[in-house]
Amino acid sequence: MNGVPASTVFGDWNNFMPRLGIAWRATDQWVIRAGAGLYFDERTGQIPQGLFANPPTFLATTSDCAVAGQGCTLKTPDNWAFVDPGYDPKKIAFPTKPTDQLQYSAINPHTLNDNAWQWNFTVQRQLPKNVLVEAGYIGTKGTHLNMKTTQINPLIPQADGTLVRRFPGFGNIAGSEQYGNSTYHAFQLTVKRRWALSTVQAVYTKSKTLTSGDESSRFQSGPFPTPWFDYTRGKGPANFDRPQRAVVTFNQDLPKFFGSGIGKVLFNNWSANGYFIIQSGIPLSVVNRDSGAGLGGTNVDVTGNYLANVNASLPLIHSSGSTKDNLQSYINKAAFSKAPVGTYGNSSRGMFRGPGQWNTDFSVFKDFKLRERLNLQFRSEFFNILNHANFALGSDTNGKLSLDSASFGQITSTSVNARLIQFALRLSF
Predict the structure, then answer these.
(1) pLDDT of residue 76
(2) Nearest partner of 307 among 331, 338, 329, 332, judged by Cα
(3) Where are the domains of the chain?
(4) Are 239 and 282 in contact (CB under 8 A)?
(5) Is the pLDDT of residue 78 over 60?
(6) What percentage of the chain's residues is helix, strand, coil (to nearest 5)?
(7) Secondary structure in 3-state letters for 136-160
(8) Is residue 266 helix, strand or coil?
(9) CB–CB of 381/417 below 8 Å?
(10) What three-state secondary structure class fits 311?
(11) Taking the complete model, does pTM exceed 0.90, yes or no?
């Protein structure tokens, strides 16, 4: 209707998804594998969900939803909020003067399906004594990623120092744009050995993930705050980026020493598993409330709350001692200062990292064969068996630390639970 398709947005029908895979057994001990492909996402219910706050399907409203100056009665059948049946959709509330602050959601009708190139190249080598070594390069490139809750009606500074909305009469307009992008590059090394009753595997990953998104998400990502006029300043280390990560796992079936009697029942059919991980800390950014205020704010908040100022001549975190010795001053507070109203801070996204992490889990299992098709398994699992404390800085949900916080730069929590032991019985039939 009126140029808007029934699907809300126009279709993106020219998506071509090539795939290529190669496997070459050079010798009995050497295998080379390579592959690449282009993948597109689907626009399911996420498109109309961005418009649920608009008439005639209000979720909530603070403005007139019929004629200016007249209210209306909302009803909520099936968790939707509709106006009375007599509501005329052609009389959607519209601003009557520039100072009105009507709030709506918007979406670009010419959206593209976000896509990702993925590629890999690995070399496998079989060594004596059942040892397998694999080295590989893995890459991913995301393009046209859908960014939700982008502010498309900022307060634009004028020559006389005032701030005027891009679309006068309207307040905040949360839009959905597709300027998101991401890259992932990784070197992965795997060593695995099998024995008759056991398997041991060690994996090391050296990687880097850059993105303009502020979170990981199945369908949409919130944008990292940037000046409303420059989205490129939001690209940096992803909130889940771990440059180095090593994992060692083992599985051991214990020998069966007894052939009959109570010893066979109690001491045969035991197995043990272990898991050890060590990894880099997450990237962190420093913001303050006034940064960007008076300039139109950011792409997500017209009031500001952008990155703070940084003094490049000073270390960003404590310069000596261990993390445990610097719980009250993990970040060097002298290295950062608040960006005042009317300025954007000069620091960048993910300039430093929080404390690294390591953890060990262990478990033991015992199988009892009760009948031909009836089995009982006893299991005992030890999470963080060494009760190691992994420290974490107090931050918001997306790795941003506020200079306005009284606890800025302090270790205030842990990222892994204390030792946890659980027992269980599992009956299978």
Answers:
(1) 46
(2) 338
(3) 236-429
(4) yes
(5) no
(6) 5, 45, 50
(7) EEEEEEEEEEEEEEEECCCEEECCC
(8) helix
(9) no
(10) coil
(11) no
